[in-house]
Specification:
The chain has 523 residues and is of the alpha+beta class. Helices cover 33% and strands 19% of the residues. The protein has two domains: 70-127, no CATH class; 135-518, DD-peptidase/beta-lactamase superfamily (Beta-lactamase).
Length: 523
């Protein structure tokens, strides 16, 4: 009989501690060991708990997965782990491993000269890990997963009143149960080399130009700084000229004379080119940072990215080059160096929707001890204030409502029958295209060079309860592709509220039995 094991582990093993020779053994091998027990002194079969992830790939980017600790991790753990221990590798499993992994037990036994146990001298029982209650609403999470229809990208739903994350979907995903029995090197390589990055939580790690969703911030800055009034009209003939460079509006024939409301509804690029030039990049950056961009949102997950809010100083330090006015033009419509995550986009719109408070988005509501008593609560944490006037808020809120509900609005695909949805579409370029129209049409783009589709929304327009942000990679226009995804998520939320109301419940979604639990174990 042959057991596969690491010779280095066996060489460095302490004589009084057991060494795992094999794992996930078959029933045939178990029977063989038991049958030959007399000839195998010191070798025994042990049973260890493993995770069963019932929601599989739907929650995998959030929950993560567990696996046997590596030699490197064990050496860094300062005695907290032993060879063969299971630890969190990804997601909440990793971030809160010390809470939910529990404490291993031990037995003190007396053995004879042959290593056989002759007397049990005592036992330390294992201690179960703590249980975590999440803010995720299971029904809404499934609805968001179904709405994205397997496209590469992510969806985030927030409660703007406190920053609770109601849904967070990243697609494609992976089945965390694959890691329970030790994933094969071949499958691991496939997951790592997949160009659609299933192991990455795109909601917090994917970074994208915000496109026209950024116009909310530019509009707020322009109104607050007195650069424009709501009545200020700018003529759009389809292009904007700066020196010998031409910047196009998405609408080839132009929008004509438009004020701020009309520019937001029709997403007029020329209007915002003009306004952005008057503001300047550093003033735009000042307001973007108020909305939480360019900084970690602070969610309870590893590998969150900051995104990027460019400034003149940033470019000089990073690229050793002076800032160019043409770069401000691109920044004004969310292109250029701008980068955001889906969570940042959702949180920025949540801050606007709730009247100006920037919350830290959170996933964990509380941690309970094994006896059921609450060990730790996670109350909402305020990160900052937008400091926008009520007038500015009202003007932009009306415009965002019109984007979805007025004729000609670019976000009409997010419209609901009985709920007023506010939102903004966005389409961000992955690859710069030639200015010449004929050359543009001849340019053939690969799948990974097509535009990203974005949509940020909140509802109802008065006293908003939910924010939904969608970013779909290389999918096309935000209004055509991302807005319908948001509509399905918003619809699921309000349908869920109706069902709860008819059932006589008063909780908001996420506070009922739908709220997800991550049970601790005794790994």
């Amino acid at each position: 009989m042959v057991f596969p094991f690491d010779q280095a582990v066996l060489k460095n093993a302490k004589p009084y501690l057991p060494v795992k020779l094999d794992k996930n053994v078959s029933m045939e091998k178990i029977a063989l060991v038991e049958t030959n027990a007399l000839n195998l002194p010191g070798i025994y079969i042990d049973v260890s708990p493993i995770r069963l992830y019932l929601d599989g790939e739907i929650l995998a980017p959030i929950i993560g997965y567990t696996g046997e600790i590596s030699r490197e991790e064990m050496e860094k753990s300062e005695g907290k782990y032993a060879y063969g221990d299971i630890s969190g590798k990804h997601g909440l499993e990793r971030f809160f491993d010390e809470y939910i992994r529990g404490r291993r037990g031990a037995e003190l036994v007396e053995v004879n000269v042959y290593g056989r146990e002759i007397k049990n001298l005592g036992r330390i029982d294992p201690v179960s890990g703590y249980n975590m209650t999440l803010t995720i609403d299971a029904d809404l999470q499934r609805a968001a997963w179904q709405a994205i229809e397997g496209k590469a990208g992510s969806v985030v739903a927030l409660d703007p009143r406190d920053g609770a994350i109601l849904a967070m979907v990243s697609s494609p995903s992976f089945d965390p149960n694959l890691f329970n029995e030790g994933i094969s090197s071949e499958l691991w390589k496939q997951l790592q080399s997949n160009p659609f990055a299933p192991l990455s939580n795109k909601a917090i790690s994917g970074q994208y130009p915000p496109g026209s969703t950024y116009k909310l911030i530019v509009a707020a800055a322009a109104l607050e700084e007195g650069i424009i009034s709501p009545e200020t009209k700018i003529f759009c003939n389809g292009f904007f000229t700066l020196g010998n460079r031409t910047y196009r509006c998405w609408k080839k024939g132009g929008h004509g004379h438009v004020n701020l409301h009309q520019a937001m509804v029709g997403s007029c690029d020329v209007y915002f080119y003009t306004v952005g030039k008057m503001l300047g990049v550093d003033k735009i950056a000042e307001y973007a940072k108020r909305f939480g961009l360019g900084d970690l949102a602070g969610v309870d997950l590893p590998n969150e990215k900051k995104g990027l809010v460019p400034t003149k100083a940033w470019k000089l330090k990073k690229k050793k080059e002076a800032w160019q006015m043409g770069e401000t033009i691109s920044i004004s419509i969310g292109q250029g160096f701008n980068l955001i995550t889906t969570l940042q986009l959702a949180n920025a719109y949540a801050a606007f929707a709730n009247g100006g408070t920037l919350w830290r988005p959170y996933l964990v509501k509380k941690i309970d001890a094994p006896d059921g008593k609450t060990y730790k609560d996670f109350p909402p944490v305020k990160k900052g204030e937008l400091k926008l006037s009520n007038t500015t808020m009202e003007i932009i809120n009306d415009a965002l409502k019109a984007v979805v509900n007025e004729p000609g609005g670019t976000g009409q695909n997010a419209k609901l029958a009985q709920i007023e949805v506010c939102g903004k579409t966005g389409t961000s370029q992955v690859l710069g295209l030639p200015e010449n129209e004929k050359a543009r049409r001849r340019k053939v783009l690969s799948a990974f060079h097509k535009d990203h589709a974005l949509f940020a929304s909140y509802a109802p327009s008065k006293s908003p309860e939910i924010v939904v942000a969608v970013i779909l990679e290389n999918a096309g226009g935000g209004g055509a592709v991302a807005a319908p995804v948001a509509r399905r998520v918003l619809s699921a939320y309000f349908e869920g509220k109706k069902k709860e109301k008819s059932a006589g419940k008063s909780e908001k979604p996420g506070e009922s039995d739908n709220r997800r639990n991550l049970d601790g174990d005794d790994r």
